[in-house]
Specification:
Elements: H1 3-21, H2 34-44, H3 47-62, H4 83-100, H5 108-138, H6 144-151, H7 156-181
Length: about 180
Amino acid sequence: MSTAKITRLALSLTLLIIASQLVIPIQPVPITLQTLAVVVIGGILSPIETFIIMLSYLLIGLIGLPVFAGFSGGMNALLTPSFGFALSFLVSAPIFSTLLHKRTPWQWGRFVLAAAVHYLITYSLGLLYLAGYLYYTTGSFPGMIPLLLMGLVPFCFGDLIKYILSGIIIKRLQSAIHSTWFTQP
C-alpha cells in the first residue's frame, strides 16, 4: 500500500472522528457532523476505501477508543439509541461512493441521487435500530410517529445543509481527486 493511500485513509478516519465529536446533545440521538464527514469521505475515496474507513471507525470505537459522539467508546455503544446510525454507514457510505464515482465529470444530479440513497439507507437502518433499542429498554414500540419525531425530524434541515456543503466540498476537490488519488495504487 502506498504512502499516499495510507495518508488519505488516515486523514479520512481522522475527519470522521473529529466530526463525531462536534455534538449538539439532544435525546435520544445527538446531532453531529458525522453525516457531512461520511459523505465527503464517500465522495473522495473509492467505495472499498470508504468501507474500510467506516469499518475501522466502528471497530476502534467498539474496542474502547473514545471516537464515538461525546468521546464515547467501548462495547456499551451497542446499547445506545444512536449506534444504528453509525452502523448504517457500513452500507450507506460505500453505496454513496459507488453511485458518485463514475469516471465522468461532476454532475449535481448524480450527487443528489447518491445523497438521497445514502439518506434513505442511513435513516432506514438507524430508525430500525432505534426502534429495537426502545423496545428493548422500554418493553414496547413507541409507534411510528414518535419514532420519526425522535430519530428523523430533528435532523432533516441540518442534514440538508450537510449534504449541500459536502457536495460543494467534493465538487471543489474533484480535479485533485481524479487526477491523483484514483490513479495511484
